UniProtKB/TrEMBL annotation:
InterPro entries: DUF742. It comes from Streptomyces ruber. This is DUF742 domain-containing protein. Residues 1-28 are annotated as: Disordered.
Length: 120
């Protein structure tokens, strides 16, 4: 029978997760992070920094989605959001949502379609 520590390369025991987050279970109500939020490092890791924070800064040299960070760290997304909130609060990362390119309809084309429909 397999237990929580039996998965290779994964250590998500409650004690470890509690330690990583300082006992917090949520990133906060004003957290800008969801699964697709892009995170970018604003600074390099510094000596003495928590290893997960340093790993996040290294992997977000280019925009990286929260879900990708969680997968790479092999941590639950909720825990990853807490770690990201810590980095955001200290200005070490920035966060933004992917741009949604709203398609602006071509008004001339719409008028031609309307004329065509009226002619039917």
């Amino acid at each position: 029978m397999s237990g929580p520590g039996s998965r290779p390369g994964r250590d998500d025991s409650p004690d470890r997760l509690y330690t990583l987050t300082g006992g917090r279970s949520r990133a906060g109500t004003d957290s800008p992070f969801d699964l697709v939020t892009l995170v970018v490092a604003e600074s390099a890791p510094v000596p003495g920094m928590q290893s997960e924070h340093a790993a996040i800064l290294r992997m977000t040299e280019r925009p990286t989605a929260v879900v990708e960070i969680a997968a790479e760290l092999r941590l639950p997304v909720g825990i990853t959001k807490i770690l990201l909130a810590d980095l955001l609060a200290t200005g070490r990362v920035s966060a933004r949502h992917p741009r949604h390119q709203a398609a602006v309809p071509d008004l001339e084309l719409l008028e031609q379609v309307l004329v065509g429909l009226r002619n039917l």
